[in-house]
Amino acid sequence: MGIALLGSEKKSLYRFLAIYLLSTFALFSLAAWIFFISSKQHLLEQQSAVLKYEAQQIKSAIRMLHKSNKAELLYPQSDIVKSAMYDLDGSYIFGTFQTPPSLERHHDKSKLYLEVKVEPYYLGAAHLLLAKDIDKEPIQNLKKKIILFMLGAGVFFALLGYFLGKLFVAPMRDSLEQLNHFIQDTTHELNTPISTILTNVEMIEALGKHHDNNAELKRIEIASKTLSRIYDDLTYLNLNHDYHREVVSVDLEALVAERLVYFDGMIKTKNLQLVCYCEEKVLLQMDKNDAIRLVDNLISNAIKYNKKEGLLEISLTNEYLSVKDTGVGIKTSEIALIQKRFKRANKSEGGFGIGLDIVNQVVKNYSFELEISSQVHAGTEVIIRWKK
């Protein structure tokens, strides 16, 4: 069983197929049009040969009438073509047309015309005009064959393009698989030291050894929590598709309060002013770990990209969760870009560019709505709305 294509691989494959098929279609359409015009002209020339043959027959008949001494002259008839005689000035003499066409104007696209000279003016005629209905059946058959060929060629080249496209994205797939294996191995190796550090920090707190004024230990705690959060995010990215979600009723007000305690050290390090307005008993049906990732990434980004002594404002109602900062802000043109994996608007602050990608994935999993508004050097507000 083949491995399903990732979003980036599908985009690359579809773009390649679009360019390949459009260029192939344009080339084949041009070739088919040239072939059709050439073949149609050849068919018309074959039908015109009938006019030339009939012209010779009628000319011979007119010549014989001119030499005949019979009192009654019968104009030569033909079941295949219509014909008419014209004098030297182009005036109509006689013919088999119901409405005699002008010698100078006979532009009926449904007919083939042939004009020949009659010399030495037999029966006063100087010109002979013949006309024949175009047999459209061979031309229609030609069109059908070209269309069938184009359809068959289209299917063939679509399958060929898809096969070539898969070969085209294969190196990308290999690179992504190597990257994913690297992330898996890295997160596995990080888990043990992170757990050890956090366990020992918690033991120090549990044993009553106050460390509020111990800057070194505080920095260790903040760094450990940062590493733990990065580990959880990387694990989520690798296991998202196979992740088993246990949907329960999550109290977001309690969860936000809990996560603010978790981020307390980071908030104090930047000396941020925290303003939190949370309504009570805001319940959502979702996996608790997903809810934690959602809240953690929003708060973490608001801290990371905030300015020192800035404002961190959190609002929670029955309709939405809003996290607002007074940091560096984001250009309007980059708001859509930063929601993609490994994309960052501000590279000076570090990070992997996966926070908003995780937020975006959680939002899509639960059919929430994500709104981001930002102003450069003024701050950013991220709002998550859910349907009640």
Notable characteristics:
388 residues, alpha+beta, Heat Shock Protein 90, five-stranded mixed sheet, four-stranded antiparallel sheet
Short description:
By secondary structure, this protein is an alpha+beta fold. Helix content is 52%, strand content 17%. Among the domains are: 10-135, no CATH class; 245-388, Histidine kinase-like ATPase, C-terminal domain (Heat Shock Protein 90), CATH 3.30.565.
Structure description:
- With 388 residues, this protein is an alpha+beta fold.
- It is built from 7 helices and 11 strands.
- It has a 5-stranded mixed β-sheet, with helices on one face. It has a 4-stranded antiparallel β-sheet with strand order 2-1-4-3, covered by helices on one side. A two-stranded antiparallel sheet has the order 5-7.
- Helix 1 (7-67) runs antiparallel to helix 2, helix 2 (137-206) packs antiparallel against helix 3 (215-239) and helix 6 (288-304) runs antiparallel to helix 7 (355-365).
- The relative contact order is 0.07.
- CATH architectural label of one domain: 2-Layer Sandwich
**What is the end-to-end distance?**
40 Å
**What would you report as the Rg, rounded to the nearest angstrom?**
42 Å
- The number of helical runs is 7
| CATH uppermost class of one domain | Alpha Beta
Secondary-structure topology with pairs:
Elements lengths: L6 H61 L14 E5 L5 E4 L15 E7 L9 E7 L3 H70 L8 H25 L7 E5 H11 L1 H6 L3 E6 L4 E5 H17 L6 E6 L3 E6 L29 H11 L3 E7 L3 E7 L3
